[in-house]
Design goal:
This protein has 254 residues and is mainly alpha-helical. The protein has helices at residues 2-5, 8-27, 37-65, 69-74, 95-116, 122-150, 154-171, 192-210, 233-242, 244-248.
């Protein structure tokens, strides 16, 4: 485990895998509670996809470092998870907040996985290729809802704008440099500025089509938050709930 957590590539993969794992867990709370049947089903399907995508990435790390993927997913110390605080940010069962949060993460994840897929690692590239078709569907589906609800006028537009404003406060956590065990290296995470620029361009274009506005800022490279193991309280609550069975029955399997 220590070797994995000290490897820069592994930590980048972990950041995406942990985002997927926690987001899939959190968003599964919406099962049966969606505003209409079709979207209820879609939300549940996306949560299942996220958990499946996390497993694909954990399997890559397990193979690379001779670790059980379930051990990677469920038996690390809280500070060794590299997910950002946005994925566990409470939506208080407000559909607009849930939608905006999931969409912003989906756009980021799609761009990040595209970049990982170009690295000189055939196994990682193949795994990213498996994930990307479903990731693109998520981005398209969620983006369409942003446009539809944002441009509807009246209460719909007001609620969507309020959700964007609320979530924007923690969206910068997506771009925190991951890995609290890594030595400081100016070459690590190169391209972060370009990633933010591309992400922000996609997000702003969709918001404009929806008649919404949002201001997002790239955090300083030295920022320490969830990606470096200093998580918000809502992460701890979700991790405790998610790992309860594993803690009660270590090593249990179906």
């Amino acid at each position: 485990m220590d070797a994995m957590l000290a490897d820069p590539l592994a930590v980048l993969v972990l950041a995406h895998a942990d985002d997927k794992l926690l987001l899939g867990h959190v968003q599964s709370d919406w099962t049966g509670l969606g505003p209409l049947l079709e979207e209820d089903i879609a939300a549940s399907a996306m949560s299942q996809d996220d958990l499946s995508h996390a497993l694909i990435l954990y399997e890559f790390l397990g193979k690379r470092f001779d670790l059980d993927p379930d051990v990677i997913a469920f038996e690390r110390a809280p500070e060794d998870y590299a997910c950002c605080d946005l994925v566990t940010f409470p939506d208080e069962f407000d559909w607009a907040t849930s939608l905006v949060k999931r969409w912003l993460v989906a756009v980021f994840t799609g761009l990040g996985l595209e970049r990982l897929g170009t690295l000189d690692d055939a196994d990682l590239s193949a795994r990213c290729d498996r994930i990307m078709p479903e990731q693109r569907l998520q981005v398209a589906h969620l983006g369409n809802w942003i446009r539809r609800l944002g441009s509807a006028g009246g209460e719909s537009t007001a609620r969507m704008q309020a959700a964007v404003d609320r979530v924007a406060e923690v969206t910068g956590t997506l771009f925190e440099v991951p890995g609290h065990r890594l030595e400081e290296d100016e070459t690590y995470c190169c391209g972060r500025d370009d990633l933010f620029t591309e992400w922000n361009g996609i997000v702003q274009a969709t918001l404009a089509e929806a008649g919404l506005t949002g201001t997002f800022t790239l955090p300083e490279r030295s920022t320490v938050g969830g990606r470096r193991g200093t998580h918000a309280g809502h992460f701890t609550e979700q991790l405790t709930e998610m790992t309860e069975v594993r803690r009660v029955s270590p090593g249990a399997s179906w």
